[in-house]
Amino acid sequence: MEFGITFKGDISPERTIALCKQAEAAGFDYVWFFDSHVLWPECYTTMAVCMRETERLRYGPCVTNPGVRDWTVAASTFAQLNRLSGNRYDLGVGRGDSSRRVLGKKPLNLQTMVEFSRACVDLAAGKKVEVDEREVELVWSNSPMPAWFAAYGPKALACAGEHADGLILQLADPWLVKWFSKQALEAGEKAGRDMSRFRIMSAAPVWVGDLEKGRAQTKWFPAMVGNHVADLVEKYGKDGGGDVPERLVQYIEGRKGYDYKHHADKNADHLDFISSDIIDSFSILGDPAAHIHKLEELKRAGVTQFNIYLMCEEEERIVAEYGDHVLPHFR
After folding, report:
1. Are 244 and 260 in contact (CB under 8 A)?
2. What is the mean pLDDT of residues 162-184?
3. Cβ of 182: how many Cβ atoms within 10 Å?
4. Which residue, among 122, 164, 149, 160, has the nearest Cα to 64 in the 3D structure?
């Protein structure tokens, strides 16, 4: 199993670089960044600096979207980061959540997400691509770039299986991870793809130590995921059958809204509906043995990468705890 960390962009570049270097020394494989340029500083400039300070780590957005940059600008940025790092760049794509909603805009549709991803990957590989009815080519770029799709709903999961190299799931509930990923895998197989190398990421915050403190530090996460679940339930029904498991419907019953100005904020005032059971299910909390046990469950559910949302405070300690006590178990 691979391991990654994710920054939302609210800590200094100097500390971000130091944490990347620490993570590389500890044995982590990936560093991801939230791409929400209004809420936090532009991630790609920080990413470039971190790439130059590390040798092995792979980097990417978790996730970007088709609606905040000209596609040729985005593709050129991604291709240059890939070249700068020696092909250590992965593209994570979604429909656009916080980066668009904070501007009063809605997420894009799935077809646009697929077309954007394909255009960026092909342009980075040096292929000619039609963008806005004009043929475009990055003649200076010729490197592969894997693409991951973030998805929850049946249609989005199908898109991931049919078009992406990997699936990003923002939760650490083994049952739900398996339920979601099964849909992507089946869609890919139905489309005639070889899914033996398809990758599945579970992304969630962790807390190594006292359980009650861990719940307080990670309560923000199920609230953030609740936005996607609420959209899913609204679109596919509230009867708990078929497309939406009852456990998801129940978990958002007390949800009253979400303030994107406090996105991924542990002190936000929209967290009241989150129960301890949900926190325990969606995140990984407790002593190192508890982390290893749940990660083994996730691995059996098909997870190939666990990505720590490193935004619960004591980030250096969390990286050290995983490097000393968790990662060696999976090597």
Report:
1. no
2. 95
3. 14
4. 149
Give the class (CATH, top level) of 2-210+285-330.
alpha beta
Q: Using CB atoms within 10 Å of the CB of residue 253, give its burial: 0 to 12 exposed, 13 to 18 middle, 19+ buried.
A: exposed
- Token pair in block for residue 180: 């979601």
pLDDT at residue number 213: 97
Helix (H) or strand (E) holding 226: helix 220-236
Domain ranges, ordered by start, for the chain:
2-210+285-330
99 phi and psi angles, rounded to 5 deg: -65, -25
Q: Is residue 258 over pLDDT 50?
A: yes
How many whole angstroms separate alpha carbon 327 and alpha carbon 14? 25
Q: Which two tokens stand for residue 175?
A: 């049952």
Which tens digits make up the pLDDT trace of 264-319?
Answer: 667 666 566 678 988 998 999 999 999 999 999 999 999 999 999 999 999 999 99
Residue 104 CB contacts under 8 Å (≥ 6 apart), including other chains: none
The yes-or-no verdict on residue 183 having pLDDT over 90 is yes
3-class SS of residue 202: strand
Half-sphere exposure in the Cβ direction for 285 (13 Å, CA):
21
Whether 257 shows a pLDDT value over 80: the answer reads: no
Q: Over pLDDT 70: what percentage of the chain?
A: 86
Q: Report the distance separating Cα 30 and Cα 43, nearest Å.
A: 15
pLDDT digits (tens, 9 = 90+) for 5-33: 999 999 999 999 999 999 999 999 999 99
Q: Determine the pLDDT at residue 35.
A: 97
Of the candidates 293, 151, 274, 291, which has an alpha carbon nearest to the alpha carbon of residue 218? 274
Residue 245 — φ and ψ, nearest 5°?
-65, 145
Strand spans (E) along the chain: 2-7, 30-33, 58-61, 91-93, 129-131, 134-136, 147-150, 166-169, 199-204, 206-208, 284-286, 305-309
Q: How confident is the model at residue 240 (pLDDT cuts 50, 70, 90)?
A: very low
> Residue 131 in 3-state DSSP?
strand
